[in-house]
Every structure is written in structure tokens, then in C-alpha cells.
């Protein structure tokens, strides 16, 4: 089993810009490090469940019934639009803090659901993972280990993005900059929403 080669393959995939990356950065800049960390945890849980289902062969359902992933992607896009609208309205430190406090549990579950039913992640496990196994009939522990490596690498990349965005947010959220910055980030959320719609419907 080539676990090191697999880890490098996962890293190359994860550093390629995608909806998860854009969502985590935009969310952290808009609502703070805590929201970003909770979203990262949700993404990790969703990817771990996706990997577990893949090891059992259940993720083939997502491949054979792509409509499931399509509706999840559309739902993710609608959620991004809602976050954008909320961010556009919250233009002061106090209002944004209140809204962020209410929304943190939602971003955790959003990360779980979006990545649990992530068709691209399922395809990755079904097509790429077998190339790094020890043989055509590997033990289940090998598949689970590669799943853990995939989730671990992805989570490290996501954490670095969230922590970096958190540092940047400290600079951008000075009182005289809060309103304009939040409106720019709201527009960024609209771009992320369009990205989700394109990924789901394209």
C-alpha cells in the first residue's frame, strides 16, 4: 500500500481551489475563526462518513443516482445566498456577532451534509483509492487507513486556510472597515453560491 503517494495525491487535490475552500475562507472572514473551525469540523466529519460509506461500497449510490448530489449542491448554493444576504445586512460589530452566534451550529451541519453527499469525493474514493492499495482484494483496514489519510490531509489544508483567514480578519474588521468589508464578503458568498450551482448543475 502506497500511503505516502496517496497522501501526496490528496494534497494536490486539496490545494486546488474548490467550493469547500472558498466557503471556509469566506465564512471565516465574515463570521470569525470559531465559525470557520466549526465548519472545518463539519467538513471533516462529512468526508470521514463519505470515506466509510465508500469502503462499504455504498457511495456507489451517489454515482449511480447523481440527482442526490445535484440537489445537495443546489441546497448548498441556496445556503450561500442566505449567508450572503445575512452578511450584507449585518454591517456593525454587534449585529454580526449576534448573527454569527446563532449560525455556528448551522455551518457545522452544513459542512457534514454537503460532504457526506459529495459525489466528487465518492468518485475519488471509488476511482483513485484502488490504485494505492496492496492488491485487488485488500483488507478493509487498508481502505479505512487511506480514508483517514485523506480526511487528515484535507483537514490540515482547511485548518491552515481558516487560521490564515482568521488572522486577516483581525486586520479587516477595524470599526471603520466593518461595513464595506462585510459587503465585499457578501458578494464573495454570492460567487461561492454560483460555484456550488455550477458544480451541481454543470
From TrEMBL:
Its main location: membrane. InterPro entries: LeuE-type. It is found in: Cell membrane. Coiled coil: none annotated. The chain crosses the membrane at residues 6-25, 37-62, 68-85, 106-128, 143-163, 184-201. Keywords: Cell membrane, Membrane, Transmembrane, Transmembrane helix. Pfam families: LysE (PF01810). It is a multi-pass membrane protein. PANTHER family: ARGININE EXPORTER PROTEIN ARGO, ARGININE EXPORTER PROTEIN ARGO-RELATED. This is Threonine/homoserine/homoserine lactone efflux protein. The keyword Protein biosynthesis does not apply.
Amino acid at each position: 500500500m502506497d500511503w505516502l503517494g496517496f497522501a501526496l495525491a490528496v494534497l494536490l487535490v486539496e490545494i486546488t481551489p474548490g467550493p469547500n475552500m472558498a466557503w471556509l475562507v469566506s465564512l471565516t472572514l465574515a463570521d470569525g475563526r470559531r465559525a470557520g473551525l466549526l465548519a472545518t469540523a463539519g467538513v471533516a466529519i462529512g468526508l470521514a462518513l463519505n470515506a466509510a460509506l465508500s469502503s462499504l461500497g455504498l457511495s456507489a449510490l451517489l454515482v449511480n443516482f447523481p440527482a442526490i448530489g445535484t440537489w445537495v449542491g443546489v441546497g448548498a448554493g441556496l445556503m450561500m445566498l442566505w449567508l450572503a444576504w445575512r452578511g450584507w445586512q449585518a454591517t456593525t460589530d454587534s449585529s454580526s456577532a449576534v448573527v454569527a452566534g446563532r449560525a455556528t451550529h448551522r455551518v457545522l451541519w452544513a459542512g457534514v451534509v454537503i460532504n457526506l453527499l459529495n459525489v466528487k469525493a465518492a468518485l475519488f474514493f471509488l476511482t483513485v483509492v484502488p490504485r494505492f492499495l496492496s492488491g485487488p482484494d485488500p483488507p478493509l483496514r487498508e481502505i479505512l487507513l487511506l480514508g483517514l489519510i485523506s480526511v487528515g490531509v484535507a483537514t490540515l489544508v482547511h485548518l491552515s486556510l481558516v487560521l490564515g483567514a482568521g488572522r486577516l480578519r483581525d486586520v479587516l474588521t477595524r470599526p471603520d472597515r466593518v461595513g464595506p468589508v462585510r459587503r465585499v464578503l457578501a458578494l464573495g458568498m454570492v460567487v461561492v453560491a454560483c460555484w456550488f450551482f455550477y458544480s451541481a448543475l454543470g
